[in-house]
Amino acid sequence: MSATPDSTLTSPEQRIADLERQLAEYRAERDACKAERDEALEQQTATAEVLGVINSSPGELGPVFDAMLERAMRLCGADFGAMAVFENGQWKSVATHGVPAAYAEFRSRNPSPPPPGGISARILAGEPFVHTVDLADDDIYRSGEPYRRTLVDLGRARTSLAVALRRDSETLGSILIYRKEVRPFTDKQIALLQNFAAQAVIAMENARLLTETREALEQQTATAEVLGVINSSPGDLAPVFKAILEKALRICGAAAGNLLSYDGEFFHVEAAVHADGGIAKHQLNRPPLLARSDRHNLPRSWRAKISPSARMCGKVTLTAKIRLLGRWSTAAATEACSTSHYAKKARSSGASTFTAKKSAPSVAST
Questions:
Q1: In CA terms, which of 23, 181, 307, 353 is 20 to 30 Å from 9?
Q2: Model confidence, pTM
Q3: Residue 293 to residues 96, 185, 300, Cα–Cα distance (Å)
């Protein structure tokens, strides 16, 4: 066999070097694939853990938000973060993790709407996310805006990422995470935080639907109980009115209330439910109330004094054809409730008026 010319042969040293380079490339590729696999597995585990919290806390969003924020920060490499919902025109914090104490204390003492052009304002304006690479290197910080200054100077935040919680075009809230160094978040981390935001919106919607279902069931149960009292007390309105009043107070979250009938000229107290039995007895024994169109002409002790801190005040009028039967009213309830539903029951039983008050120092007894 003829010898191969030296020019066609690779030296052993070069061959070894090429093999070592190829091996290093294979190892790097393997390590990258392994890191990607581990990252995907960690994300799946975190998602499964959040779903587990959602399943174990039906209707309870607090544990869900806490778990979601903690895992989002861990996977995105953030130092601290917060989660907030936007309700009634205001931001409300629902979860925090790792927030520096000095910054947390400042924010608790100085709540305020977001400054124009700030992160929260941009989320409200419709941006899906806001990624600020250096919080200390933009016009808001340089202008001396106090909340941005506090975030950087007390919170030591430098890079931030905020993602909107949005249902259709409605902004429900946001997730904000921060790093204490100038280090941008990657596209994968932004997408990951958006995925957590989508899970949060689903959890909020599930909680809303569950709450509505529970309320509807509670109302149906209360209605059945009232109908039972009506059937067991034919011709006797006193236990019927008391049952209606008790169920309405329970459903509406009110602390006390009165139910009054109307005879065409005067209102008469027919039922009273109060924690203090003496107050209930006094209400039942008080003289009839002359109906007037101007509430300010009523006796002072019968007026509902509603302060600016009261959350709600509403009235439901009971009528049969065109004749006034009575009125139900609620004052300072913390949430809207279907008093008109119970007004219908009272209408079917007799003429009445209902007044209820929530336990609050700002609302006087009617």
A1: 23
A2: 0.58
A3: 51, 64, 15
